[in-house]
């Protein structure tokens, strides 16, 4: 793991923790440019926006596309997210043409980067990002577990 990826995951974890302030599931995502510079970051905002598509990954990809300089294509970029992307977010990373998807905790209930489905490596698609799993996985999982315990009053 490079220092850029570790620092990016730290930032994604900070963003994830902030999502709890407005009642959203603590998931954070950042997009790194081809040289490793931070292009954009976001936290889940589904509750905040009342938008089912306002996942951290989608928001970060949208923001990164605004500054990357190649329209919607994020060629050479890396998506770093605290939880394995769902099908929507995995699909968005493929369609955005990111080179790499890095995530923390596996999501056996909805993960689409290898756990439940494997959208990002589906050979039928015209682009397949490299996937790196388990970066700061325990920190990501701990944040999520604490959030859901509090939601359930446990």
UniProtKB/TrEMBL annotation:
The lineage of its organism: Bacteria, Bacillati, Actinomycetota, Actinomycetes, Geodermatophilales. Catalyzes the deamination of adenosine to inosine at the wobble position 34 of tRNA(Arg2). Zn(2+) binds at residues 55, 86, 89. This is tRNA-specific adenosine deaminase. PROSITE patterns: CYT_DCMP_DEAMINASES_2. InterPro entries: CMP_dCMP_dom (IPR002125), Cytidine_deaminase-like (IPR016193), tRNA_aden_deaminase (IPR028883). It catalyses: adenosine(34) in tRNA + H2O + H(+) = inosine(34) in tRNA + NH4(+). Homodimer. The gene is tadA. The active site is at residue 57. Binds 1 zinc ion per subunit.
